[in-house]
Design goal:
Blueprint lengths: L3 E2 L2 H4 L11 H14 L4 E7 L5 E6 L17 E2 L5 H4 L11 H7 L2 E7 L6 E7 L2 E8 L4 E7 L6 H5 L4 H18 L4 E6 L2 E6 L4 H16 L1 E7 L2 E8 L7 E7 L2 E2 L3 H11 L3 E8 L5 E2 L10 E2 L2 H18 L26 E6 L3 E6 L2 E6 H18 L5 E11 L2 H9 L1 H7 L2 E4 L4 E8 L7 H18 L5 H9 L9 H12 L14 E5 H8 L14
Parallel strand pairs: 2-9, 13-15
Antiparallel strand pairs: 1-4, 2-3, 3-8, 5-6, 5-8, 6-7, 9-10, 11-12, 12-15, 13-14, 16-17, 18-19, 19-20, 20-24, 21-23, 22-23
The structure holds adenosine-5'-diphosphate and magnesium ion.
């Protein structure tokens, strides 16, 4: 991708600022550039905790020879082109700030070679000035060497802390990336000694390498999905651990965010280790809020709060987290709630997402969300067809404070919403009181439901999707993937779903289930006619 200088109107939209505070900030920026360049392997070398030398070497895409000098200009980037790109950033960098800021306060040498060129380029800069550039042999990738940090800004040099403190910041940056990118190889070499040499690994293996056996063994996995995205990670609740160690990643970027923190804190309270990954569509995340990109904002802060809080609470209350069938013994037992004439027999839940059910010589894997959505949608349509839609009157009205754009949206959908069972009225300027909701929506969580509905209405116009209001309501009201259900609840859901007219599709016409016939199972397993229980593969 070509590097170019961002035009002024784009620069103004960027939350720019000084990004180089200490050696660890340089390490962070250079690692991010390596990852953005698709590196599989990143090596970090430091001397005197980065004061004397920081060298970051990657095997990524490299920089085209004619672009090397440009890369050190302010606002020179290959990662965004127009305003729209800022709204859905998929790379770590986008401001074109790091290399010039680093070069301004140190002596830099960059050696790079892209694929398909014979020779690479070596460029040297001092205090931000290019003092030499020539062809040079280089492996494919990029190596940036930063020497004599703050040599020309003595005051900032004075503000550096002890070697031990600066090194611990560097190690913090290194481990953060190593956790978020376990499939890449990482090494950290300090004063010639390898502190970490990490080969590509699974997430779990990477935790083991970084935290050790004792801590990793205590970590429990969690995983939850909601409209806002997916959240997963590890939680360690050793009561002897008074220290709190939270790490939050949004689309693998290590960040802070007040909603995530509040949700984690509300669920966990005291100390412990929490490593939490959120996966969210980039257009729903604003990474352009903090100069060093350390903070993010979500378009639906509340949805993210709910998702994180409910996923963690579920883990804490059930201790089951993401369980396979095998981990929850009662799932094997036949359903106690099976009634005469019922179609499906609930067998259990897989990954808190699929219901396993038996019926008429078949095994069914039923998507719990899709099935529930179908049930709610049918009920809603039936209710709408009747004279008065069944509504649930709220004991206290739910007041929603809305932006004017949201009020407009609500107004334009008012009649459809009322047809579905909502009763709402203006409540002072900029607010709406919801007095009744469709009966299919549980009364608790009305506010969160209404907020999500607003979000859907907003997205709906933005993306010109053709989702109807009843479809939206059914989808938002339906149990989410990742929700643990008791066997009785599973049976009830299967019963309701079994009565619906269109078993095969959810409200959006996506498939709901997958089935295999038991005959096929028997055939595959070799339990066909004539087989016996002593049959073995060697026979
Ligand atoms: P940004 O990352 O915000 O684009 P930088 O100043 O960090 O700004 O880098 C400027 C440009 O130089 C990048 O957009 C990229 O094209 C190029 N670049 C920097 N580091 C690397 C690297 N390690 N590998 C490949 N290209 C790089
Ligand atoms: Mg960068």
């Amino acid at each position: 991708m070509k590097i170019h200088i961002l035009p002024p109107h784009l620069r103004q939209q960027i939350a720019a600022g000084e990004v180089i505070e200490r050696p660890a900030s340089i390490v962070k920026e250079l690692i991010e550039n390596g990852l953005d360049a698709g590196a599989r392997q990143i090596c970090i070398e430091v001397e005197l905790a980065g004061r004397q030398l920081i060298r970051v070497t990657d095997d990524g895409a490299g920089i085209a020879p004619e672009d090397v000098a440009l890369a050190f200009e302010r606002f020179a980037t290959s990662k965004i082109h127009e305003v729209r790109d800022i709204e859905s950033i998929q790379t770590f960098g986008f401001r074109g700030e790091a290399l010039p800021s680093i070069a301004a306060v140190s002596r830099v040498q960059l050696l790079t070679r892209p694929h398909g060129t014979e020779l690479g380029v070596c460029a040297r800069l001092e205090g931000g000035r290019l003092i030499g550039i020539r062809e040079a042999g280089s492996p494919v990738g990029t190596s940036v060497e930063v020497r004599d940090l703050f040599y020309n800004t003595p005051v900032r040099r004075k503000f550096l802390r002890s070697l031990r403190v600066e090194l611990s910041h560097i190690i913090g940056v290194f481990t953060t990336f190593a956790i978020a990118f376990p499939e890449r190889a990482w090494s950290l070499i300090c004063d010639g000694k390898a502190l970490f040499e990490l080969a590509p690994a699974s997430y779990r293996e990477r935790l083991l390498a970084l935290y050790g056996q004792e801590v990793t063994a205590q970590l429990e996995a969690f995983d939850g999905e909601g409209l806002s995205g997916r959240v997963w990670g590890s939680l360690g609740r050793d009561p002897s651990l008074s220290r709190r160690s939270y790490r939050f990643f949004v689309n693998r970027r290590s960040v802070r965010n007040a909603s995530v923190y509040r949700a984690a804190h509300a669920a966990l309270g005291g100390g412990g280790i929490l490593i939490l990954f959120l996966e969210i569509a980039p257009e729903l995340v604003d990474v352009n809020v903090h100069p060093a990109k350390r903070e993010v904002r979500f378009r639906d802060e509340e949805g993210v709060y709910d998702l994180v809080a409910s996923t963690l609470t579920r883990l804490l209350t059930s201790r089951s987290g993401v369980v396979g069938v095998a981990e929850r013994e009662e799932l094997y037992r036949p359903s106690p709630a099976m009634e005469a004439g019922e179609l499906f027999q609930a067998v259990g839940q897989v990954e808190n997402t699929f219901l396993l059910a038996a019926a008429h010589g078949h095994l069914y894997l039923v998507d719990q969300h899709a099935a529930h959505e179908r049930v709610l949608y049918d009920r809603l349509l039936q209710a709408i067809a009747g004279a008065e839609p069944p509504r649930r009157h709220l004991i206290a009205p739910q007041v929603l404070v809305l932006a004017s754009r949201e009020l407009e949206l609500l107004e334009s959908h008012r009649s459809e919403l009322e047809t579905c069972g909502f009763v709402m009225e203006q409540f002072g300027p900029g607010a709406v009181a919801v007095r009744a909701i469709p009966e299919i929506i549980p009364a608790r969580g009305v506010e969160s439901f209404c907020r999500r509905l607003m979000q859907r209405l907003r997205d709906d116009t933005a993306e010109r999707r053709v989702e109807t209001v009843p479809q939206m309501i059914a989808c938002l009201g339906a149990v989410k993937a990742g929700t643990a259900l008791s066997l009785a609840e599973q049976q009830r859901l299967l019963r309701d779903w079994g009565h619906s007219h269109q078993l095969h599709a959810c409200a959006h016409n996506r498939p709901v289930y997958f089935r295999i016939s038991l005959d096929e199972v028997r055939r595959k397993i070799g339990r066909a006619a004539g087989s016996c229980d002593t049959w073995s593969p060697q026979a």
